[in-house]
Amino acid sequence: MSRNIGLIALLLTVALPIRAQDTEALPSHQATSSGGLVALAKPVVRVNGAVLTQGDLLREMYAIFPYARQHNGTFPTALEPDIRQGALRMIEFEELVYQEAKRRQMTVSPERLTQAEKQFRKQFGTDQEFQRFLQAENNNSDQILRKRIERSLLIEDLLKTEVTDKSQVSLAEARSFYLKNLGKFKRPESYDLQTITIMPPVRASRQQPNPPAPTPEQLKEMRVRAEDALRQAKATKSFEDFGILAEKISEDDYRVMMGHHKEVDSKDLPPEVLQAVAKLQVGQISDLIQAEGAYTIIRLNAHILARTQSFEEVSQALRDQMRQQKTERLRRELDANLRRNAKIEEL
After folding, report:
1. HSE-up of 329 (CA within 13 Å, CB side)?
2. C-alpha to C-alpha distances, 295 to 225, 262, 271, nearest whole angstrom
């Protein structure tokens, strides 16, 4: 119930994919056949007498999981039931919001409706693409399309009144929360660092989950590689130099990020690493650190002392978070209120 509802979200921008399981006959991504239109028109739920269709449901499922469009309209098997249930709940909510807007006699001016229609048409590369959409999704009727656009705008207007406008968080509200919850804004001592790691020659894998311990010869060879890595690391002069070297020779997963670990809480560092890094100055590179069966070389980029973040540092993110929380709460409350006396029949 947290997805923003907008004009584009409620209306299709391309032909709606139809899956075989939705039509029991149609395997194609193209949904322009008469069989496809019949499948999309199949009723799935009735909300206070208003019928919502398979097309409405699929449209919302693609809004929730847009990647399905790239896979011939197919959703992950394990996720599809939850996606479908979430989509069903959303289209019911949209219809209830629309009906409430009509009950309040809310209207959309002809000028605004015309402007919204122009904006919607701009989504299409050519007039031919728009005409294909109009034929497939609106029975080739400009009036049906305008009615759908009007419905979308009314939903947006009511949500703005009942959710968006009421979700605003003032600076004073945010400051009050901050002062009452200072513990939430304490930052622990941490280190911004890069690493180059030389791993043991035999590592666990799915095929060999319990590998034998390295032989003395293998450990000696690992030490030689580590000392060579240290020699190269000590010759680097900057974050970029060290990072490029890490990409080339490091054997841990951080190599793809130039060895960068960003800020790491001091309590999350192995004791051997913490002891070594605590002695470094910013920009310095450690000697070889043997920890957890590997050799690690560290470049210290920053040492962040434990402190409480100032309100100025966190105010914008805090207001955004508080606004999002209020938005979700108000949407849930609106949904519950509208459902209280509604008649919803899943078909």
Report:
1. 9
2. 9, 20, 14
Q: What is the CATH number of the domain that holds 239?
A: 3.10.50.40
- Domain residues for 64? 7-170+323-346
Sign of the alpha-carbon dihedral angle for 163, 165, 170, 176: negative
Q: What is the DSSP string of 216-229?
A: HHHHHHHHHHHHHH
* pLDDT 10s digits, 138-189: 778 888 889 999 999 999 999 999 999 999 999 999 999 999 999 999 999 9
Strand pairing of 289-291 and 294-304? antiparallel
Judgement on whether residues 122 and 166 belong to the same structural domain of the protein: yes
Residue 312, in any domain of the structure: no
CB atoms within 10 A of CB 111: 8
Does 79 share its domain with 195? no
218 plus 130 within the same structural domain: no
The CATH number of whichever domain residue 155 belongs to comes to: 1.10.4030.10
Strands 344-346 and 186-187: unpaired
Q: Report if residue 317 sits inside a domain.
A: no
Confirm whether pTM is higher than 0.90. Answer: no
Residue with tokens 């199949």: 42
Answer whether 94's CB lies under 8 Å from 68's CB: no
Q: At what angle do helices 142-159 and 110-121 cross, to 10 degrees?
A: 110
On whether both 68 and 154 belong to a single domain, the answer is: yes
Q: What is the CA radius of gyration of the chain?
A: 29
Q: What is the DSSP string of 58-107?
A: HHHHHHH-GGGGGGTTPPPTTTHHHHHHHHHHHHHHHHHHHHHHHHTT--
**Same domain, yes or no, for 36 and 110?**
yes
End-to-end CA distance of the chain: 22
